[in-house]
Design brief:
mainly alpha, Glycerol uptake facilitator protein, 2 domains
C-alpha cells in the first residue's frame, strides 16, 4: 500500500515537473516574442541611422561623374516645380494675410520629385557623402567628395537655369501665373547678403535633417519631406537650387542682373547651405554617434 502511494507520488511529481518545464518554456517563448515585438516597434538608434546614411554615402562616392551629372541635371530641372507650383496657387488666391500659408504648400513638390525619385540634389550631399569623409579623413576621400560636389552642383545649377529660361521666354503658364512668378521671384531677391547667408544656413540644416530622418521614415517619407520643406518655404529660408530658378527667372525677365544673382543670392545661399548641412547635421551627428559609442565602420 505504501509502495503504491510512493509510486503515485513519484509519478505525480514527474508529471508536475514536466508541466512546470512546459510552462517555463512557454513563458520563455512568450517573453522572447514580446522582446522581438518591442525591438521591432522601437525607434532605430542614432548608430543605426548613421550606418544607413554612411553606406549610402559610400555608394554615391563610387558613382562615375557622368551618372552624377545626368542625375543632377534631372534634379535641377525638377526643382523648378518648387517655383511653378507656388506661383500657380498664388495666382488663384486673393491677396490676403493667409495667402502665404497656402502658397507655401506648393514648395515641397520639387523636393518630393527629387528625393523620392533618387535624383542628385546638392544639399542632400552636405550630409550623405560627408559622413565617409569624417570617418576616413584622408586625401582620396576628400578629393572624391569635392568631385561629387562640383559635378552635382554644376548639374543642378544648369538644370535650374534651363528651366528659368523656359519659364521666362515661353508661354508655358498663363499670364496671371506668370505675374505671380515675377512677384514671388522679386520677393526672393529682396534679402541682402547677410540675411540670405543666415537663411541659407537654416535651409541647409533642415534639408540635411530631412536626409537624416528618411532612412527609417518608411510610409511617412512624403510627410517628412513635405512638412520640413513647407517650413523652409514659410520661413523664406534660402535653398540654393530652388532659389536659383526664381532668381535666374527674375534676371531673364529684366527684374535683376546676373551680378545680383551671383553675389546677392547664389554665393550666400550656397555658403549657408553648406554650413548648415555640414556643421549642424553631419559633424554634430558624427560626433554624437561615433565619438560617443566608438563605432568602427
Amino acid at each position: 500500500m505504501i509502495h503504491n502511494w510512493d509510486t503515485k507520488l513519484v509519478g505525480a511529481a514527474a508529471s508536475w515537473g514536466w508541466l512546470g518545464r512546459l510552462l517555463h518554456n512557454q513563458r520563455g517563448v512568450t517573453d522572447q516574442a514580446a522582446l522581438d515585438e518591442a525591438e521591432e516597434r522601437s525607434a532605430p538608434t542614432g548608430e543605426v541611422v548613421y550606418r544607413a546614411i554612411f553606406s549610402e554615402g559610400e555608394s554615391e562616392l563610387q558613382r562615375p561623374s557622368q551618372a552624377l551629372a545626368w542625375s543632377g541635371l534631372a534634379a535641377g530641372l525638377s526643382m523648378s516645380f518648387s517655383f511653378i507650383t507656388p506661383a500657380l496657387i498664388h495666382a488663384h488666391l486673393p491677396d490676403s494675410q493667409w495667402r502665404p500659408l497656402l502658397v507655401a504648400l506648393g514648395y515641397p513638390v520639387g523636393f518630393l520629385i527629387v528625393i523620392l525619385g533618387r535624383q542628385q540634389l546638392f544639399t542632400e550631399n552636405t550630409l550623405t557623402v560627408i559622413l565617409p569623409l569624417l570617418q576616413h579623413r584622408n586625401r582620396a576621400t576628400f578629393i572624391n567628395v569635392v568631385r561629387l560636389w562640383c559635378v552635382v552642383f554644376a548639374a543642378n545649377l544648369a538644370g535650374s537655369l534651363v528651366m528659368a529660361f523656359v519659364l521666362a521666354r515661353t508661354q508655358i503658364v498663363d499670364e496671371e501665373a506668370f505675374r505671380s512668378m515675377v512677384e514671388l521671384a522679386r520677393h526672393a531677391q529682396t534679402s541682402g547678403f547677410a540675411a540670405t547667408l543666415l537663411r541659407g544656413i537654416f535651409a541647409g540644416w533642415l534639408i540635411a535633417l530631412t536626409v537624416w530622418l528618411l532612412p527609417f521614415a518608411e510610409a511617412a517619407r512624403v510627410w517628412v519631406i513635405g512638412v520640413i520643406t513647407y517650413v523652409i518655404a514659410l520661413a523664406q529660408f534660402s535653398h540654393v537650387i530652388a532659389g536659383a530658378v526664381e532668381t535666374a527667372f527674375l534676371v531673364l525677365v529684366g527684374g535683376s542682373s546676373w551680378s545680383e544673382f551671383a553675389m546677392g543670392f547664389l554665393l550666400p545661399a550656397l555658403t549657408g547651405n553648406v554650413i548648415g548641412g555640414v556643421l549642424l547635421v553631419a559633424a554634430l551627428n558624427h560626433a554624437q554617434v561615433v565619438a560617443g559609442s566608438g563605432v568602427d565602420l
